[in-house]
Amino acid sequence: MTDSELSPTGAPAADTLPSPAPDQAPETEIVVELPGLYCPKQPRRHPQADLVHERGLAWMERHGFCTTPQSRKRVADTASADFFGAVCPDADPELLQPGADWCYLMFIFDDRHCDEDLGDYESLLDLSLRIARTLEVPRCGVLDPRRPFTTAVVDLAERLHQTAPPPLIRRLADAHRAWLLGAARSRAGRSGKALSPDDYLLIRMLDCGGLPTLVWIELSDPRVIPEQQIVSPAVRALTEMALLVAALDNDLFSYGKELWLAAHTSAAMPANVVNQFMASHDYGLQDALRDSVALRDRIVHRFVEVHDQVIPDADAPLARYLSNLTCLIPGNLDVGLRSGRYRDPDGMHPNAVRTIATMTGTPSAIGPPPDAPSIAGWWETDW
User: Fold this and answer.
1) Which of 69-73, 123-127, 240-244, 284-288 has the lowest mean pLDDT?
2) In terms of DSSP H, where are the helices of 15-66?
3) What pLDDT is recorded for position 114?
4) In what order do the strands lie in the sheet with 15-16?
5) pLDDT exceeds 80 at position 14
6) What residues have CB less than 8 Å from 78, skipping those under 6 apart?
7) What distance in Å separates the CA atoms of residue 194 and residue 197, rounded to the nearest whole number?
8) Looking only at Cα atoms, what is the longest distance across the chain?
9) Residue 30, SS3?
10) What is the separation of C-alpha 372 from the centre of its chain, rounded to a whole number of angstroms?
């Protein structure tokens, strides 16, 4: 399907996304069934995703992250090559590889330093600044050589400097700072007062890691998008909408995993759009799932409207970027629902969690969401 075939309500027929096979069902402890998710484009798969995957695992092994069958499975379960391949299905695999490698590494970083590590958030901020600086100056030496991530980050940074133009290197470093600032803010608030749904959206746009992901997506195409185009209000809005939808979908397909971890470990339930609706509206789970899906449907519908206004005047590099943004929404959803990362919560209980989801051709709600001033501007302008 090409971008010209997108329309706010003219989506493909409903398609149920895969879940574990019936013979695996007896192992399942938690089942989460989501309302239909509006998705105006079918997911795609990069034809060489398997090659990118094997190269990515080999790279992670060289840096000490796949030394046991369990650790290798945990890295593989992130499905990072499938994710980047679904977002950039037409990319040269050589240009796709660094982004996939980064994704494998950052999932493990996220687990260790943003989710599971109980150290203070000031330490996370310090490490985050050092990673961003290393992306700018690979041999600056600000990362502790004893840390497990150091050699991998330096290697990625050196590869980046061999191929990327300086403006994208700068934007990637800035995007990392924004991501890890959001992660630290989210973590610092876990023991504080509950966030409002709008406060949650404001933080979630940063702490989901979407901004650096989208710069790596740009790097999958050798053609550079002029700075004035990529930072224009309309393209910026499309970028933010796509990454926030991906973040909200991640909240939905990771909800069962978080329930399982809260029940079986000392981990507390992290901030999640479903929990935000439950806390702020005194909802039960089904009502919170309904409103969470309605929120992301509103954003997807607006994304399609703005996309259709921008695409006629886009040159080839910008058109490829907009195509990748449209692929991000179904691709992230499809890969996330298939991923062992969310079906096997701790790497030792395959199929303990099952999430059932269906893609639909009609949004459950349209128009600006109520009480969400942080994103209301997306509906206030016709570009």
Assistant:
1) 123-127
2) 49-62
3) 56
4) 15-16, 358-360, 37-38
5) no
6) 103, 104, 107, 108, 339, 341
7) 9
8) 54
9) strand
10) 21
Residue ranges in 226-272 assigned as alpha helix (H): 227-230, 233-253, 255-264
> What are the angstrom distances between the C-alpha of 238 and each of 108, 301, 376?
28, 11, 13
Taking 3-state DSSP, the helix, strand and coil percentages for the chain, each rounded to the nearest 5, stand at 65, 5, 35
Q: Which of 383, 8, 13, 39 is nearest to 245 (CA)?
A: 39
- pLDDT tens readout for residues 327-376: 999 999 999 999 999 999 988 999 999 999 999 999 999 999 998 999 99
Residue with tokens 């195409």: 221
How far apart, in Å, are the Cα atoms of 336 and each of 17, 250, 332?
10, 7, 6
d(CA 101, CA 257): 24
pLDDT tens string 48-89 = 999 999 999 999 999 999 989 999 999 999 999 999 999 999
Residue type, 129: L
Radius of gyration of the chain (CA): 20
